[in-house]
Amino acid sequence: MITWRVAVLLGVLGGGAVAVAAVLEAADPDAGSAWLWWTLLGIVVLVAVAAVADWAAAVPPAQVRLGRSGATQVRLGESATVRLTVTNRSARRLRAVVRDAWVPSAGATGPYAHDVDAGPGQTRAIDTVLVPTRRGDRPAARVTVRSYGPAGLAYRQTGRRLAAKATPPWTLTALPPFTSRRFLPEKLSRLRVIDGQVVTRGRGQGTEFDSLRDYVIGDDVRSIDWRGSARRVHLAVKQWRPERDRRVLCVLDTGRTSAGRVGTVAAQPVAGVVEGGPAEGESLAGEPRLDAAIDAALLLAALASHADDRVDLLACDTVVRASVSTSVKRSVLPRLTKALAGLQPALVETDFGRVVAEVLRLERKRALVVLFTTLDPGALGEGLLPVLPQLVAKHTVIVAAVHDPSLEVLAARRDNARDLHTAAAAEKALAELARVRSALSRAGVQVVDSPADRFASDVADLYLALKAAGRL
């Protein structure tokens, strides 16, 4: 392939030939015209030969070895660097442009094309900074090498098939951002306080034996361990702690309702608001319900693992999308994060009968089941409520849903007739949500209905409250 330099060279030499021919034509018209055509033909042949020679002198792309190194995982919103190494395995100097292309959602910053100048046997490194915009696996697309000759008149380039074969495979996994981890120190502090309170109160529901200590005045005489005291000099009393090794199952609804975006209220006015659109103080976009549920599930899993409880995960709609059963408590968070990285909503109606059947199959013993879904009256009324009694009979159930604060904002706007109709629809939606919460509460289910900014924290608070009350 030729470059733009060939056209420039032809233009310069051809222009010079035309100027000389004009001088010769002034003296002899016939001689000047004939000289011009032969000269132009010679220039074309000369430039073509030079271009072919330059193409032959270029390093063949097949003699360029490519390799990769760098990050394989990054949290969504953070940056990672992946290095591409280019090694010249030929005996000639490599003058090339290397294009390192990634899928758009990988968020590659900077130019795709990089100039590479390497002598025989030398290696050059190209760093690409990636800021993924979506969760999941973000693969490298294709590396294209365009090798130029010494004069830059022609180049060799890898074809589509050869480029795909020569591209070193690499995948960067974008993990969930886990923004709720900022709540973890406060929740762990409360967990330690709960442990201390249970030991101080003595035995109660949801506690188990911890250790023996010497009796002091004021202790409950019913806590005296007479057998243990017989082997001691002083009386010994039993200490209790919250039960460990409880089972916590996080169930994520990945049906169509999980794809809905939950609006958030912005602190500043939104620019470009049109009549009938979002009012001042409203956000034009929110996060999907599934992302908020994943964030809350990760916080709950981290908290439960520190409490020595076992955490399992189930993501399901009409089929099981992800299932993680943990046996080693301290390694639960990395496994859950990896499993949730590529989880996406499915545009199908969730089969809650299938969800309940999977929960009963996974958890034979009593467990805390946290169902992350929506309080949609149609989905829950026809799907979940009929099968809920068999789940509540065996497990402690929490239904956690992200509340959309834009409903309150719309319900409060009554400036004109259009806003009044919108407010009526919002009030009706809020009333239906209240009826669903009431029906779930009557069925013996704990309900969390909080905005996205408090959702993960409220789910963790309810877990701590149930643990303190010994109801896990």
Automatic annotation (TrEMBL):
Residues 212-256, 291-409 form the DUF58 domain. InterPro entries: DUF58 (IPR002881). Keywords: Membrane, Signal, Transmembrane, Transmembrane helix. The keyword Signal applies. Residues 1-21 form the signal peptide. The chain crosses the membrane at residues 36-59. It comes from the Bacteria. PANTHER family: BLL2464 PROTEIN, SLR2013 PROTEIN. This is DUF58 domain-containing protein.
